[in-house]
Amino acid sequence: MPLSSPVFDSTTIGIFNTEDYGVDASGANDSQAAIEATVVAAVAAGGGIVQLPPGTVLVTSPAHPTQAGRFSALVWRSNIWFRGAGEGATILKLADNQNAGTITWIVSHYNMASGDTDTNMMISDMTIDGNYANQGGGAKLRDEGILLKNCTHVHHENVTVKNVFGTGEGGDPSTEGFAFHVAPASNITYSNCTGRGAGPDTDTSSLFSSSSGNNVQYSNCKALRSGRAMGFTNNFSSGVQYINCISEENAFYGFNLEYSRGVSYMGCRAGGIPVPLTGLGGAVTITGVSKSSPGTVTATGHGFVTDDRIYIGGNFSSQVASTEVQGMYQILDDVFHITRIDDDNFTIGVDTTSYGTYTSGGVAVKTKGNYLIGFRNQSGWDISYTGCAGIANGGAGANARSGMTLQGSTRRISVANSIFTHNTAYGIDTASATLGSLRLAGDVRCELNDGAPGARLGLRDRNNANGFLTSAYAAGATTVAVSATTGLVDNTSTIAILMRNGNWHITTIGVVSGLNVPITALPYETANSTPFHLHKTANVRFPHNGALTVPRVLPSPVPTGTQYVNDYPFPATVYVYGGTVGTVTVNGVTIGSAVPFSSGFFTLEPGAGIYLDYTADPTWQWFKAS
């Protein structure tokens, strides 16, 4: 069934002002009965806009008219549009103590039995506040913002749902709770909607859910800071689309998928690092970094707490040269789990004794990653990810996870033009998945992912029984065996995957070379001899996953005749000056002649190498190419 939205003509449809029926926008009195009276009047007229005023509209939750044991503040009917005065201007707030061992919906609809379908409904321009901190009494189950069950053609626009209750404890679905919930329904659309919790370790629920939904679309929606569970989740659904959606700082997953088919993610981001850093609220200036184990960062009034994940940046992200870390380049453009020492100092969990000496510069900001996984796919079929990003996801220790994880029986997964970077463990992790096909297309990057522990890995397989792949094809005609217990990327001995001469090449980090070379589709065999195909078109990249091939503190003097590779994930400008330099060779091409020169600038693409031939020591400096 094609996706379609409800139809309302606001120029001709009747508008029913709730204040005419007694709604109080001061937040002092219960307005539930007045809103219900407005809805009844609109239904009697064949439908219409139920207009809520600016201000705080307090509502209690009486028994739902058709669902025994359930409670709901507002009850939708067909052809009704709930409209506020603006997101943040109209606040529909659940009164205190409305949940005592019950399931409470703030907004639901009338006919929920299978076959009794409400249709053509809309809600827009308001904030719904579940007031979870004041829902006391009894063994609380859950509050939900907006529930849709056995209805069709419903549109949500410019709606925020926040502070709804749900512990999600013990995997019990009765305690999870949602801000926006489809369970089940069809032809449901969301545009510019936000689900907002109160952050990790609070009893705030998952935010956007489609359970057995069909033709559901989320466009420009945000899921922020679920306290117990997920940002966006769908299970046993089909035809779900996520377009330009963002999921940040959720306790479990940014985007979760379980047993669904035909789901597409386009331009979506799970996690993130705020950039530009300069002038950004929450960014602090670094004034010192010790050479110690662990390294200690000094940043006056930093405001961070233990176990925060912070990003240390500079001109690589903000394009302001004065903020770049000088001297200790190893900590630049990286994410660290920190331990707070005091208001002005924190440790970054790595040994900095062998790093360069910090001299100046650098800023730090808390990342916005989801605590476990950015994109999780459990047994999904025909799933596509296009133009997506999984950034700075994963917690510490046992919660070290990935930008994307594929689990269970997955089939026909496509990832195109996407990036997975700065995640605690892995860029893309197959996590014992039984894959039918994984297609990497366009420009897919796994960069600067930390690994576990001490490894920085991109694409990893961790089928603990036999390994996911039993063999791979290296450069030329040689077949390279992959250990049956380690899979494609080893858990412990730090093995990387590289593309070389049109084929996969598997090697230890110590001899990494030949990055960013396109490969072709290659067949593999799984442990049970079932054919598996990893498809590849264009440029798939896994740079920076592992020990750096070039130390960020470059040797001085420059060794003559020794190649150094641009290990940065961006083009670098190398400034060579002084000494007596005859020739400079960049990526195999010799520049200059035997006539000495005094200075020169040379541009290196990521993965390109440079070496100098000289008789007197020159000096060089490396910069991000503009």
Describe the protein.
This protein is an all-beta fold. It has 4 domains: 15-169 and 180-200, Single-stranded right-handed beta-helix, Pectin lyase-like (Pectate Lyase C-like), CATH 2.160.20.10; 284-366, Elongation Factor Tu (Ef-tu), domain 3 (Beta Barrel); 373-541, no CATH class; 564-624. The protein has a 26-stranded mixed sheet that branches. An 11-stranded parallel sheet has the order 5-8-10-12-15-18-21-32-35-38-42. The radius of gyration is 28 Å and the shape is elongated.
- Tell me, briefly, the overall form: elongated
User: What is the first-to-last residue Cα distance?
Assistant: 49 Å
Mean pLDDT: 75
Share of helix, binned: under 10%
Q: Per CATH, what is the topology of the largest domain?
A: Pectate Lyase C-like
Computed over alpha carbons, the radius of gyration is 28 Å
How many domains? The number is 4
Name of the CATH architecture of the largest domain: 3 Solenoid
| CATH class wording of the largest domain | Mainly Beta
Q: Approximately what portion of the residues adopt beta-strand conformation?
A: over 45%
Short description:
By secondary structure, the protein is mainly beta.
Features:
mainly beta, 626 residues, 2 helices, 4 domains, Pectate Lyase C-like, elongated
